[in-house]
Amino acid sequence: MRCAVYPGSFDPVTFGHLDIIQRASKLADRIVVGIAAHSGKTPLFTVAERIDLLNEVLKETPLPGKCEVVVEGFDTLLIHFMNKHKAQMVIRGVRQYSDFEYEAQMSALNAKLSNRDIETVFLAANPEYQSIASRFIKQVAQLGGDVSPFVPPQIVAALNKKA
After folding, report:
1. Which of 54, 107, 99 is nearest to 79 (CA)?
2. In this predicted model, what pLDDT tens digit does every residue of 18-31 receive, in sequence order?
3. List of domains in the chain
4. What predicted TM-score, i.e. pTM, was given to this entire model?
5. Could you tell me whether strands 30-36 and 119-124 are parallel, antiparallel, or unpaired per DSSP bridges?
6. 85 with 78: CB under 8 angstroms?
7. Which residues are part of the catalytic machinery?
8. Alpha helix (H) ranges present in the chain?
9. pLDDT for 52-108, tens place per residue?
10. Which of 30, 37, 61, 153 is 20 to 30 A from residue 12's alpha carbon, by CA?
């Protein structure tokens, strides 16, 4: 069984994140979406809220691959989370070159920390999602802007409750 981990803060989940999950579902038999508790960011939603929101959205997200997707929070090193799930690959979405540069450094670090073969699979963001970043979505929502072109309706509702 090919298992992949797709880590991130997902605060909140966007159409770009969902696109990566859909595309990654063709590459693995199981994807564990790891919601990072300690991502170095100040979250708007708790880990539990992010897990619930992502699970709710995934119920309505078609997956082209025959892939099981599970969502779980983690507060360890990514490599430890991957070991827990016996994952062979980490999925990373990249929007721009600056994302790739950062992710390549993280990939090299994970390779050094790992005692086994772990592949990092970089999926380039589809052009329609390249400008979407969770931090911008939160700002737009907090200032009363319409974020519905960027996130599912469940996320719009959750953001409106937090505003």
Report:
1. 107
2. 999 999 999 999 99
3. 3-157 (3.40.50.620)
4. 0.91
5. unpaired
6. no
7. 17, 41, 95, 134
8. 15-24, 47-58, 78-84, 97-113, 134-142, 153-162
9. 999 999 999 999 878 999 999 999 999 999 999 999 999 998 887 677 787 778 877
10. 30
